[in-house]
Every structure is written in C-alpha cells, then in structure tokens.
Amino acid sequence: MATCDTRGDDDRNSFAMTQHGRSVVVGIDGSQAALDAAAWAVAEASSLGVPLRLVHVSEEKRACRSTVDTVARDAELIASAQYRVEMTAHDLGRTVHIETAVVHGRPDCALIDESRTAALVCVGTAGRGPCAHIPLGPTAAALAKHAHCPVAIIRSGGVPSADTGWVAAVQNDDPDNDAVVHRAMEEGRLRRAPVLLIDMRLDSWIRRYPDVHVRTVAARRAGTRRDDSHGDSIQLAVVGSADAEHLARLVWPNYHPVLGDAARSVLLVRR
C-alpha cells in the first residue's frame, strides 16, 4: 500500500512556532461534516488574519466517470463550501478571505502536505468511523499523527452558537500543557464560551488532599455572569501531542476526562 511522504516530522514543533502559517486549511469532500468544519474555521481564520483555504482532494482514479464530470463535480463541491463560508462569515460579522484549491492524490497525503504551510488544518467527522468502536476515519487519524501544524477534528451537527457548550482541557504535567491550556483559553475567548479545566497534575493541591472535595472557580469581575454547570455540553476538547497517538491509532481513550465522548470536536495543539 502506498504511503505518504512525511519527511520532516521531527521538525513539526519548530515549524508550528513560526508566526501563524499562511492559511487555515479545511478539507472539503462534499459531506455535511466537511461543510460544518469549514463554517467552524471561519472564526479561526478571521482571528488570525489569514485566508481560509478550502481544499478538495480529487482522487485521480474515479471509475465510470469522465474527466469533464469529475471537474464539474469538484467545482460544485468547492462552490458549495465557499457559499457556506460566506454565509457564516456574514452571520458572525467577520471578514475572511477565501481561497479554494482542487488537488489530486490521496486525501491524507494532500492535507499533510498542506499542513506544512498552514496555521491550522480542519477536517469534519460525523463522530464515528467505519465501525462502532472506531471514532475517526483514516484521514483524520493520519493528520493527528503526521500534520505539521495544529489539527481540528470538528464534529458534524453545526457550529455551536455563542455561550453554548464548554471548551475543555486537562491540566497535567505534559511538557506542552501550558500551550494546551493557553489555546483552550483563546478558544473560549474567540467563541465566547466558558472554559472547563480538569486538574490532573501529580503535585496539585487537589491530589495532596484526596479526601477533601474541592471546587475551583476563577474569580471574575463583579456583575459578570458565570455558568456553573457543564454536564455533557463540551463543544470542543483541546488536547496536546501526548494524545496524538491515540487519535492516530483510531482510539478514543475512554479514560480521558475530555476525550471520553466520540461525539465531540477536538483541537490537537502542536507546540
């Protein structure tokens, strides 16, 4: 089986530290999940001040379909996604420059290549893979393992409205945890959503006193509203590179505080 050229993976962290990348890339395949990912990515591109690049990967071998039909279908997919992005940007009151591209090859390889010069790569998911126990498809899994920039895996079902659903992250002792928490806070600000931080640090005060029930709430300015319940309403789980292998192996770790639900969008942070 052919494999992608992933040379340069050892340099992905230093690459991701560059300014912002040239664009926010969204993989477009004609599915509703891909359109939802494109709509979700509008705020990301607008906040970074970079173009939103819609990429459709046309596999070169399409049985029983002429070249003319293929080109027409590819153009239709891109046009539909562009219209959805324009409507979303209008509704959000945001300005975003849209780029479109049709490339040929395997979707995973093409999007990994796009990630070399991207600020973020977004793909959509219906929340399940080809089997009940496999939450991701092969393209999302390959990006989790090999992408050179952060990866967003966006659950289909529409873009959450403001103030609905938490942005969740774990505080732990991983080397990139500060970057994970920072990105979660930025996403909370961007999406006007509350942030849920789950403290799993080995030397935290909570672990030192396991017999004491502790609830930590950050103080806010007087007069501002605080949502004290989160339940199952997490709209985005922000995770670090330690979880990339689980996603790449198509494993959704049930033990993980914010990855326990496959019907959840995930933002994988690369430091």
Automatic annotation (TrEMBL):
Q: Which domain of life is it from?
A: Bacteria
Q: Which family does it belong to?
A: Belongs to the universal stress protein A family.
Q: Where is the UspA domain?
A: 22-155
What name appears for this protein in its UniProt entry?
Answer: Universal stress protein UspA-like protein
What single Pfam family name could you report for this chain, choosing any that match?
Usp
